[in-house]
């Protein structure tokens, strides 16, 4: 039952308002209303008095509350999209229970899972320091969060996270294997680095900086992933650890902790050493590894022997290959089971040649300027041969063309010319890369597997974004490792979103391919191609989805607008339901 105002026009031409108590009822499939009582004419009352009367009646009849727009008290906006999706997937993976179970005997006094979840979401939305997160966390939709956040608990959560890292990684691997329905037959391994601010981390060292900050100490990150880019495990190494020295630890963990007995190991050229290949053989893992194009007798011989690309077979657009056994080259390893596969990309070849030509031209201009300066009489000291050649070396090294020039200074004149033999040798490398493998896989499958690693390397740049957008300020080793674990977890969720979304699109593509009418098929395929979003694109769109926190007549709720089309498509593809337009909160 509810109150209803009914207006009636009388014979005198005036309109009168009456207040009725009305009841809704169902008759068959129709919903009808009938008057239970009439409370008479209400024209003598003000609008405010009528509103109060209706409010009182409905609270008596059905505990209903009716108010006006003036009763709405808007609050602050909350970041909603990313937290909503991550929490759904977090629960699907059972992470809160896994963290709690792993810590059950450690006397933990706060919600570690809640703090870790908040840090993961923060890395995906707006990477910032723990202190900044603590100051702004109330602006994030976290319905299961602790009632009172404490800054110290963010740091302590990193310690606990590292204490349970092996158990948590095994749990995630088990859950993702089931959820994404994959059997691990191929693992990909690569390295990245991140610099630190601070001087008290014992594993921070100066080393080869992939973040282009050689002035800062760094740590190295080795990441083992599935072909879809889903992280399996990771390890943090001191900052000057060579890539090739990290393989042993990763192989040991893969074998012992994840019980992966049979799979192909795919690694980049930095992993290629006789010792690592022997370790792979000992572990029983066939390998696919990139091979250096420069400075290796084997690759130089292959590139020269098979310079004619007419003998290459085509895999797909812009990708060709040619296979050569180790018996055809002087392979120091003398591994009769291994094969070399040369790969060629004509588009990349054009890019490589154009890049080299541009670098050579810039170097020539700089050297010509030095020639001109030397030819013009200068007051003061005569040019020093040693200092001059150091400057020449800096110019050529900066442009990466030192191998292509022959430079001479006789004390007065600077002369230079191209090293034609070096240029011809370099041209053989344009658009090519070399792969070594001891698998029985067809050559084109080997090439595509290695290309998958190259795609993962591109994804590594996303991890570097997670790590670099706020260099590590933690001073102790455990918290540096914990911070990186949070970054890897954030990357895991991004990749999971991408995998689930794209699998749905792949099913749709299969359906479209069966359409017989060509024009319709092409149109639908073009529309599908426009929706081929990455996990990063989906997250960026989700990050724009905010909700309004409000209160109405004593009840607190969230006003939830519909998300943008990309986000709606992603939610549908991933299997996450749209939330209600109004979500009541305590």
Number of helices: 18
Report the biggest beta sheet as strand number plus sense, adding barrel if it closes. 9 strands, mixed
Distance between the termini: 27 Å
Radius of gyration over all CA atoms, rounded: 33 Å
Trace the largest sheet across and list its strands: 7-6-5-8-9-15-12-11-10
* Rounded mean pLDDT score: 83
| Structural category | alpha+beta
Description of the structure:
With 586 residues, the protein is of the alpha+beta class. It is 44% helix and 21% strand. The chain has 18 helices and 18 strands. The chain has helices at residues 47-62, 81-92, 95-102, 112-125, 130-136, 151-163, 165-179, 247-256, 274-283, 297-305, 346-375, 385-399, 420-427, 443-468, 477-513, 518-529, 535-542, 565-574, and strands spanning 2-9, 15-27, 30-41, 72-79, 186-195, 218-225, 231-238, 264-267, 287-291, 313-316, 319-325, 339-344, 405-409, 414-418, 432-437, 546-552, 555-559, 582-584. The strands form four sheets. The chain has a nine-stranded mixed beta sheet with strand order 7-6-5-8-9-15-12-11-10, sandwiched between helices. Helix 4 crosses helix 15, helix 15 runs antiparallel to helix 16 (518-529) and helix 15 (477-513) crosses helix 18. The two termini are 27 Å apart. The model has no long low-confidence stretch (mean pLDDT 83).
